[in-house]
Amino acid sequence: MTIWHINGGNTLHGSVAVQGAKNAVLPIMAASVLAPCETELRNVPELRDVNTTLRILRHLGCTAERGGDAVYIDSRGMSRNDIPHSLMRELRSSVIFLGAILARCGEARLSMPGGCELGPRPVDLHLEALRALGADVRERGGDIVCRAEGALTGTRIVLPFPSVGATENVMLAACAAEGETVVCNAAREPEIVDLQRYLQNLGAAITGAGTATITVGGFRPRRAVEHRILSDRIAAATLLCACAATGGEMELTDAHPAHFLTVLDSLSEAGCDIMTTSSSVRLRSTGRLIAPKPVVTRPYPGFPTDAQPPLMAACLKARGTTVFTENIFTNRYRHAEEFRRLGANVSIEGRVAYISGVEKLTGAPLTASDLRAGAAMLVAALSAEGHTELLDDDYICRGYDGFDRRLAALGADIRCETQAKGGPV
Ligand code: EPZ
Hints:
The protein is an alpha/beta fold. It has two domains: 2-19 and 231-418, Alpha-beta prism (UDP-n-acetylglucosamine1-carboxyvinyl-transferase, Chain), CATH 3.65.10.10; 22-228, Enolpyruvate transferase domain (UDP-n-acetylglucosamine1-carboxyvinyl-transferase, Chain, Alpha-beta prism), CATH 3.65.10.10. The protein has helices at residues 22-31, 48-59, 85-88, 97-105, 124-132, 164-174, 190-202, 233-246, 261-269, 308-314, 334-339, 371-382, 396-399, 403-409; strands spanning 2-8, 12-17, 38-42, 63-67, 70-74, 82-83, 107-111, 136-140, 143-147, 156-158, 181-184, 204-207, 213-219, 224-228, 248-253, 273-276, 280-285, 295-296, 321-325, 345-349, 352-356, 366-367, 386-392, 413-418. A hairpin with a 2-residue loop joins strand 4 and strand 5 (70-74).
């Protein structure tokens, strides 16, 4: 358990580098078991989810070590094809290992990933796509058991929804398929393009990532690959929302503004001055924000669902009413309900949240319900008067590397203390 202490009211000023992308490094670490090879990843953020994935790789028999911002994986010693419940429950997105283990071993057994704070997180699209490649996929006693009698067979797969995880799982499994696989209605997120770049360096004939059609046509694995992880667009968006909320001027370096243009548009509509280069963003926020145009979350390149909570936090004091529509997850407004404790004016009707800007927020005890909600609560607390104590069951450290350190360096009055579970009573 981590307890965050924030004394709001400070404006933020300065320059900060954006961390490597959580949602790029996790699938790439899974992809490293596709073939017996040595992988060196750089710009890897220090995150709880990365550490969990290192433990999964070691469980599978790989060598997996971190050194500074690098991770070194040697998958030549891989000796298992299963991920137990104890590890899957820590990181449900480890379902991305399914395609990679199946491709490498011809069989994969994973504990069924459960839902999470965002609602039910089904994997039906993943399993249907693997079946289309010829895998025998059964759900048995809480496990997913996948088998490929003989080789998988390349085919045309049309995803009913551009699921990020399902797209990634098919990309990995298709590397082992005989013949060409074409994935239609594929997710187009930048993290998928980064995964493709890694796979190409590993020896896969794969093209099309970033568009709705990805083609995989063969795999001649190399023995070693180096890769620098993409910059994290959601961590960048969260930092910018913090500066928009508090006022001040922030420069982000090692950023890719082209990957979060929709967020920049909303911040600009809210009254922030924004200047970008290909690898940096400068945001200046002076005076009271104004409510941006309605925010509707959609698959990429639409507005990213993961940036909805922090942008909402930045809009709590904006003049007017900001309307959010959450189309990706069924339960992604728990942060909105928590904002009321700070004095925010929030009303929720199904997938739509209405934020009527208030003149002032006042610090209060808060509880983080998930990763992005927790970060959004920090953003809101920074712009509230007085002290906020945020209880965080180690959600924020899953996706944000040194968030307290980065915000403090920009002038925030923030610190966090870690309590052992079952801490002092
Ligand atoms: C990835 O999750 C990200 N996680 C999420 O980020 C992100 O919010 C999401 O994509 C959408 O962009 C990682 O990359 C590790 P989906 P994923 O499959 O792959 C439904 C964060 O905070 N669906 O695109 O699980 C699903 O229920 C996290 O960094 C099915 O119905 O997302 C959801 O409503 C949160 N069946 C929608 O599709 C399936 O088989 C989007 O899911 C798969 C998904």
